[in-house]
Design a protein that fits this description.
The chain is α/β, with parallel strands linked by helices. The chain has twelve helices and 16 strands. Strands 1, 2, 3, 4, 5, 11 and 16 form a seven-stranded mixed beta sheet that branches. Strands 8-7-9-6-10 form a five-stranded mixed beta sheet. A hairpin with a 7-residue loop joins strand 13 (307-315) and strand 14 (323-330).
Length: 364
């Protein structure tokens, strides 16, 4: 046997071992996919992939070969993602609004291979996950210009679902009209109240009459159905394509950094990847009717080393002049410090619940 034949024989033997290992690896990928479906997590986790590449490439001592091994790892991850996409074809994602609404755009960006299911409002979308009709729901919780989405925050306090991720979607509002419509001929503009507010200066300067709609996509559909060239909608360019409208003017919103934060809700809490760094959590609670109870609760959170990014109070609908509190903080609530914090908070809080713990939010 010459050198070439011997090398080929050895490669064949190695490939046989790699084939068995590949089967084992894909079986574990299927388990990952199953976990992500149950917890409402997207397939792509860029931070995790980068972490694996850095760690695993360090096992290769030869610097020349190492760069090729990085390519090998990246190829493996691409294959794993494609396999997960096939497995997740049955994933059902709820959102509020109609096709083309920003919530639908967010849901498709986070779960591009899932079945998108439209619901008329936040409550029914949320409840569809509670009752098992859908696997997860993508709902807005805050806009950088208009503030919190109070309806969703209240549902979150009253409900049982967990947040397993928060994602930032940049909102670009555009003026959409019927084909052939002229900007100079527009008299009325239809959109969601928040979109109208975010474009208030533009609407005022143009002298348009604003009319509210349930969401931006419904506004676009109404314009298409009316057939009146003096009526326009404020919505996304995706919505324009969906309803056969033309973009009369782009990016008309007041703020150039207009972003909406969308939370993914599921029935099961995500405890995976609970490292000390790069985590955040959402907490809701009520405090006892005692002097200094709220101040002490806030002090406990800070004393255990958690940085509060957000602290809000919301009225409790069923109890006049009573409030609950919503907190977003950096850190791992599953750590010893987090467990101690929850124990201490229990002394001052009547209602205390971790709504979710997850990696820092991502842009979509």
């Amino acid at each position: 046997m010459n050198q070439l034949e011997e090398a080929r024989k050895n490669i064949n033997a190695i490939d046989q071992k790699m084939a068995k290992l590949f089967e084992q690896r894909m079986a574990e990928v299927a388990k990952v996919s199953e976990y992500k479906i149950a917890h409402g997590l997207p397939i792509l986790d860029r931070g995790r992939e980068n972490e694996v590449i850095v760690k695993n490439s360090s096992f290769v001592a030869d610097e020349t070969i190492r760069s090729y091994y990085v390519n090998f790892l990246q190829s493996n991850m691409d294959i794993s993602r494609r396999y997960q996409q096939m497995l997740q074809k049955g994933l059902s994602v709820a959102y509020s609004g109609v096709e083309g609404a920003f919530a639908n755009i967010a849901a498709k960006s986070i779960f591009p291979d899932a079945n998108q299911v439209s619901f008329p409002d936040f409550r029914t979308a949320y409840d569809s996950v509670v009752n098992g009709e859908c696997d997860c729901a993508v709902l807005p919780i805050e806009n950088s210009y208009a503030g919190e989405v109070s309806q969703v925050i209240d549902i979150m306090f009253q409900g049982t679902l967990f947040i397993n991720g928060i994602y930032d979607l940049e909102v670009r509002h555009n003026l959409l009209g019927l084909p052939g419509a002229a900007l100079s001929g527009i008299r009325t503009v239809i959109s969601h109240p928040q979109a109208l507010e975010q474009c208030a200066n533009y609407i005022r300067k143009r002298g348009f009459e604003p009319v509210s709609a349930a969401n931006t996509a419904i506004a676009a559909r109404q314009v298409a159905e009316r057939g009146d060239q003096s009526v326009a909608a404020i919505a996304s360019t995706d919505t324009a394509k969906l309803y056969g409208l033309e973009v009369l003017e782009r990016k008309i919103n007041e703020s150039s950094s207009n972003t909406t934060r969308f939370a993914v809700f599921s029935r099961v809490e995500n405890a995976a990847g609970a490292g000390e760094q790069g985590r955040q959590f959402v907490l809701v609670f009520t405090v006892r009717n005692e002097a200094g109870a709220l101040a002490e609760a806030i002090n406990i959170i800070g004393r255990q080393g958690f940085n509060m990014r957000t602290l809000r109070s919301r009225p409790m609908k069923e109890l006049m002049w009573q409030y609950y509190f919503y907190v977003e903080a950096d850190g791992n609530i599953s750590s010893p410090a987090g467990r101690q914090m929850m124990k201490e908070l229990g002394k001052y809080c009547d209602h205390l619940r971790v709504v979710g713990s997850f990696p820092h939010e991502q842009k979509i």
